Amino acid sequence: MNDELSPEDELRLNVLFNTELKAVRIDESTMTLWALTPRGEASVPLKPTERADRYLKRVREQLSGHALGSPGGYPVHLTRWTRQSQSGLSVQHLAQLLLIAEEEAVVAVVHSPALTEELARYAWWCMPTIENARLMLMRDVVCRSTIGRMLAEYLIENLAFLHEDDVGILDTVAVMLYSGVLSDAERLAIWRRGGSRNSYYVAFLELQSDNLPGPRAARTDHPSVPQLAGNPYSTMLDKALSGQGQTFLATTGLVLERPEIQEVVNHTLSALANWCAPLRQLDEATRSAARAALLAAAPQFESECDALDALAAADADSVRPIFLKTTAIGSLMRRKIQPVVTPLLDAIAALRRQP
Description:
With 355 residues, this protein is mostly helical. The chain has helices at residues 7-17, 52-68, 78-81, 91-97, 103-111, 117-126, 130-137, 140-143, 146-158, 166-179, 184-192, 199-207, 232-241, 243-257, 262-275, 277-280, 284-297, 302-312, 320-323, 330-336, 338-352, and strands spanning 23-27, 32-37, 40-45. The chain has 3 domains: 7-127, no CATH class; 128-195, no CATH class; 215-352, no CATH class. Helix content is 59%, strand content 5%. A 3-stranded antiparallel beta sheet has the order 1-2-3, sandwiched between helices. Helix 12 (199-207) packs across helix 14 (243-257), helix 12 (199-207) runs parallel beside helix 15 and helix 18 (302-312) runs antiparallel to helix 21 (338-352). The longest helix is centred in the first third of the chain and has 17 residues, at 52-68. It is elongated and about 90 Å long.
């Protein structure tokens, strides 16, 4: 068994090592090593002298020895902490990890809180994947840069490839909304995808509940809600009957009527709990007094207050006992959670019903 690279590859790698390398990747399908330098991309067609996987291991050992001073190759322990906190890694060490042509090392860089705009660009050149785009857009330094916009465009283009991957849709839409790099037209286009797959709506409900695209009309009796300073029922009723409130309630109802997976249910109920925070954070005595004051001023809203109480009592814990006993999805899951969801849908209908 040959323990060395071919003379041609040895020479080409030594030439590369004398340049200012920024990042290295290997295309295993064509057996080509690509390097990113200040002058652009450089390619090295590899000439294996043994089985391809063994030869590539030796190439990576050479890269690791040059970049990390580790002649034994890529440090195996990295694979155990890659997806954990990397607060101890310096920018210099992260830059070195991009020179060893190991995907797991690139992921380590992407996960690091020390990630910079420059490192993000090099990591993206090494490994342009949906997961890496999502992870990097969670960093404010990336969101504020031009690469943040590029990553968002990539995710928008690749949303269609997620098909029925509801978790992937949840995560991707959430990170794009969090990044703040979407235009109003892009936000609306993503929102409209919810018409065919309601998981697209969920991140909007969680992150932008009071700023949903394409708001519906307010309920006709919205102007008659008493404006009682410091009264949480007045606050919640005013919000629920507004255009944004009606949009939130209608969309939450659409999702809860036909969720496909448990994660969609959990996230939607969490969004509902956050929306109802003004009521949820009160003790029973304070809530009772606030409700009485609201109804004294506007007794016609008693059924709406009942509905708000029902919604405020729900959160992800409401379905936890059910989900602990089943991995069901689709129609079977919907039947199992019906005792929790049906009262919520009734409450939503009451708040959307025109007087």
